[in-house]
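User: Please fill in residues for this 566-position structure.
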């Protein structure tokens, strides 16, 4: 699937999420200050050492500051709901939380700006609706409900009033939560209510364009440059190691080139990759207009994995199916016409329209009203999505927390060097921040610095209380993914006995027959076989066989489903 189409689908998939977000933040906000104090007490636990020195505010959204207390309470709530938050999920949880919190703040500010109000009557009416929704399953079993009411000696109306009072005392049924929900709905309805369409627009909605494009992504452009330098570095290091291992002196020219490569790689971080991407797109546009084969250029250069291998072909699509800038340009082109360079959030595009068609449904004249309603509904959702995106695009967001800032930088710009510096800063401020250590280790491993990566992960083991320093294993924490990653790094460094100990611990931690553990055991089997640990590999195979049988017995798909944080 192309980046452009993917973005459209994501936007429309998250429409209902805000309702859940409202509930989450009401629940999170209902936590007492005591829960924050409990979160602070854990600073001294483990082997990280040092006092926690972190900013009071983690971010500021259009002048609205998000406190550290809110983040700590949320993380405590997430950890309390399971057996703790595995380090490999911390980045995902933090970035999702900031995204959700930002959207909630921007929406609340928009509600104020639009002067949207909710009356006490509306609050009570919605609370009564919620009680009726809760009671619906019981009302369906009238006999059981009647027997319960008889035992308790109350009428249905008295029972309903009792449930209404109970609901009002919960975070979900509080005035604040219901006001947020209704205000959000009113804002959504106001934005959607401004959509007007003509009969000509309804007919035009059936028009389709067949187009192809070349995408140049600044982040991917930087990644390619880094990969090229890293490949040359690995090749030179292998030559150097082979020479010195054979008793020959090291080649000074190889070391000189390695030093030069290190300097070149560092310089990549200072480049304006957005400008580089635009320049490359302009160059490709010049080639295309000069008669070069568009499909071959797309196959060789496009950063869209969904269409690049197909010569940039996106197939046929209707209006509104692509991101706005792309959509407008594609439908403005005549067949065979090539666009100027077009910028979207994915990078820079060169677009060529290949054809245009409009095929009205056979029942269009008969069911024109139905088609009109369907098109209006689609346009309303597009208007609402665009409104939310505009709120986000125009927001002034300052991220003060270095860990959150690092993840935002990686997601938006892919700047690993700055992210490493920020994660270092996060760890200095909070020595027990295991998630930051884990992500920093991944970055160092990506730069082939296995020693630094391993040192960070071993620190996590100490903080969590897992001791592998003696002859026997004394597991005391961690996650299967962490243990597997440590094992891989130890194996990279030829410390195979230690690697096996971590792999065995990963297997123990992933023992329950759950979907999310399947991939862990699959990789463990491969690792043990590569290490010639046949008995251990067979144990992993046995687990996978048991898992498959359990799925078949319950009618599940052993190769499908979703992975969740338990």
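Assistant: Residues filled in for all 566 positions:
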């Amino acid at each position: 699937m192309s980046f452009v189409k993917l973005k459209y689908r994501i936007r429309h998939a998250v429409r209902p999420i805000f309702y859940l977000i409202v509930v989450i933040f009401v629940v999170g906000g209902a936590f007492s200050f005591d829960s924050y104090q409990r979160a602070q007490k854990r600073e001294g636990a483990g082997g990280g050492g040092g006092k926690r020195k972190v900013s009071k505010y983690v971010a500021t959204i259009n002048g609205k500051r998000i406190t550290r207390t809110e983040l700590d309470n949320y993380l405590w709530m997430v950890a309390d709901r399971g057996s703790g938050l595995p380090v490999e999920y911390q980045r995902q949880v933090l970035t999702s939380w900031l995204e959700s919190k930002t959207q909630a703040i921007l929406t609340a500010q928009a509600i104020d700006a639009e002067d949207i109000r909710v009356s006490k009557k509306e609050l009570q009416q919605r609370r009564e609706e919620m009680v009726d929704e809760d009671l619906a399953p019981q009302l369906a079993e009238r006999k059981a409900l009647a027997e319960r009411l008889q035992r308790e000696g109350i009428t249905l109306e008295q029972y309903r009033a009792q449930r209404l009072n109970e609901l009002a005392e919960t975070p979900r049924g509080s005035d604040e939560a219901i006001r947020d929900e209704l205000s959000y709905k009113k804002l959504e309805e106001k934005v959607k209510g401004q959509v007007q369409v003509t009969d000509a627009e309804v007919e035009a909605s059936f028009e389709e364009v067949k187009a192809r494009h070349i995408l140049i992504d600044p982040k991917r452009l930087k990644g390619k440059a880094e990969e090229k330098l890293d490949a040359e570095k690995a090749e030179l290091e292998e030559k150097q190691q082979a020479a010195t291992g054979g008793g020959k002196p090291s080649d000074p020219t190889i070391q000189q080139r390695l030093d030069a490569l290190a300097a070149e790689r560092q310089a990549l971080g200072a480049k304006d990759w957005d400008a580089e991407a635009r320049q490359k797109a302009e160059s490709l546009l010049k080639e295309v207009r000069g008669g070069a084969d568009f499909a071959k250029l797309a196959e060789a250069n496009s950063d869209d994995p969904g269409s690049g291998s197909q010569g940039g072909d996106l197939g046929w699509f209707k209006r509104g199916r692509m991101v706005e800038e792309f959509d407008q340009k594609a439908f403005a082109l005549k067949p065979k016409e090539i666009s100027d360079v077009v910028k979207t959030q994915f990078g820079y595009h060169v677009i060529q329209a290949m054809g245009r068609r409009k095929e009205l449904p056979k029942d269009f004249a008969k069911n024109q009203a139905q088609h009109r309603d369907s098109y209006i509904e689609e346009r309303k959702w597009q208007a609402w999505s665009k409104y939310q995106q505009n709120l986000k695009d125009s927001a002034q967001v300052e991220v003060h927390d270095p860990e959150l800032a690092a993840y935002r930088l990686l997601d938006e710009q892919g700047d690993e060097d700055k992210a490493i510096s920020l994660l270092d800063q996060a760890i200095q401020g909070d020595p027990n921040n295991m998630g930051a250590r884990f992500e920093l280790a991944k970055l160092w491993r990506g730069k082939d610095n296995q020693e630094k990566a391993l040192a960070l992960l071993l620190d996590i083991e100490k903080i969590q209380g897992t001791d592998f320093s003696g002859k026997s294993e004394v597991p005391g924490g961690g996650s299967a993914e962490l243990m597997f990653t440590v094992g891989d790094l130890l194996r990279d460094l030829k410390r195979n006995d230690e690697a096996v100990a971590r792999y065995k611990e990963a297997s123990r931690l992933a023992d329950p027959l759950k979907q999310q553990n399947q991939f862990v055991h699959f990789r463990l089997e491969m690792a043990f076989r590569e290490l010639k640990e046949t008995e251990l590999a067979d144990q992993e195979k046995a687990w996978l066989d048991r898992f498959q049988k359990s799925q078949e017995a319950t009618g599940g798909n052993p190769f499908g489903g979703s992975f969740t944080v338990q």
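For context: The longest helix spans residues 218-245.
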